[in-house]
Amino acid sequence: MEGRKKDGRKKQEIITFKVDEPLAKAMLGIQNRSEFIRSAILLAFDSVCPLCKGAGILNQDQHEHWDSFAKSHFFEKCDECHAFHLVCNSEKKHRVHIRSADDETH
């Protein structure tokens, strides 16, 4: 089985990186820095663009797929939270931010 040791456990890879002094000092009190860093990286992946994977640019193949997708989608700014988001041309407009009547009066 690829990616596993002979006893069935997943292989682990050690990755090291340099940090500047202020970051090193900020991390001094953290009990398990490896777990903290793993958690921070996984959390950051949730915020990375799913198309470019954080690169900020699309390669030629991705650009062709994007052009096809963009023909039936557009960007829109939310009136409530002001975040930009994608909207499909074929979908009816729906509310994302649903607030109760009490929220509306306060």
The neighbouring-strand order within the major sheet is: 1-2
Kindly, what is the distance between the CA atoms of the first and last residues, rounded to a whole number of angstroms? 59 Å
Shape: extended
Output the radius of gyration: 22 Å
Structural class: alpha+beta
The description of the largest β-sheet is:
2 strands, antiparallel
Number of strands: 2
The parts where pLDDT drops under 50 for at least 5 residues are: none
User: What is the count of distinct domains?
Assistant: 1
Integer average pLDDT: 85
Helix content: 25-40%
The number of helical elements comes to: 4
Keywords:
alpha+beta; two-stranded antiparallel ribbon; extended
